[in-house]
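Blinded run. Sample ID left blank on purpose so nobody reads anything into the name before looking at the predicted structure. Input follows.
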Amino acid sequence: MAQKIQCFWIRKKHVIHLMLIIIAVFAAIILEYHWLVRRFSQYAYDSILDIKKKHLEDVVDNIIINLDERQEILRDANEGFSEEQIEEMLENDVRNWIYASEYNDASYIWINKVLNYDGGDDYGIRIIHANLKDTEGMMLSTNEEDSVGNKPYLVELEGIKKEGEIYQVYQFQKIDSDRQVTKLTFAKLYADYNWIICMGVDLEEVDNYVNQMQSKTRKLLFLGIILMELAVVLGFVLVLAYRRKQYDSKAKELISELNADYLTGAGSRRYGEWLLSRYCDECRHGNGSAVVAMLDIDYFKKINDTYGHEAGDHALQEFVVAISHVIKSQGTIIRWGGDEFVVILPNYGIENVNTLGKELIEKIQSIEIDTGTELITMTSSIGFTVFEETDEFYNDVMKRTDYALYMAKLSGRNRYKINLKQDNSEAIYSDKEK
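Blinded prediction complete.
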């Protein structure tokens, strides 16, 4: 009888230990999933905020480009008109355009005119507001505060005077509501008429989107907890590893999308800088090298000015297609900025650069862009160099490629140059045969 009682307590002790292990693992699973949800939510918020900022800046820049073009048209069509008359006609045109425009996430545009750059009361006047038309003509003051004591007009004016543009976040009363919400704005000076072109978005929209994502993630969390509890019996280690692998895969996909240039499909500059820094470190430690090329389209501004930005965008896309056709899978194409691109070719022999340069020049020359009225062609100037073990930072490499590109342009464009020296003043160059 005593043995039976002892065996019973031993079995009960084992059951208790097993239950404690299950509870500990279950608690660890909950903590890890909560950590993953918080981390993903923060990453999603930061990424969406960056996208919003880029959207605001792009829209404002496009408005300024349109203002320049429209102003030129008005001057040509109304010779003899005063500057005030031209400004008034331009103001009416842009007002009609802004009123008719709609944007996602409740973002909107307004324009203020600076009357006194020293600030103070009546420093400026609102001339256009898409959502608050009754405020047009209202005088503005840099002393005005939001609900938490910020002075958004003062911050805006100081930023405009210093940089010509500014991002800022402040509180404002939501339209058709008594609630105070946070707004992200981008403002840029149109100096011709002292206009400040502004675009803002209610960050509550971003919060709502992230909360929706978080809600969906929490539903997955609940299911994951149940699955992980069963996995303690069936092999919780394998299930947990699978979940982590699945999360990493999704994170990599999201990072891959953020690292791409949306227009051309090339890598973004941020991704390019990371890649160049990595190859620079590898080369400095004797783990290989890479050829780097910098290319741009000769007289690209002329294409934009003559045929419009749509033709310019098409030219950039075809430019990347042509480069990809030549380098295939041997390297990575990065959009460095505007019509300037960088190509990184790891473990690529410098002795092959002459052949590569000629193929790129010929392929780019064969591009034809149909503008609807005519076919246009293009050429490119290219600068090549290679990572050296003495390069401390990737900027050392980029200076050489930039100088080689400069020499290609100086020599007449539509050619390539190779720079193999660290001292640009003693650089060795070669280019395509005539």
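Unblinding after everyone has recorded impressions. Residues 2-77 form the longest helix (76 residues).
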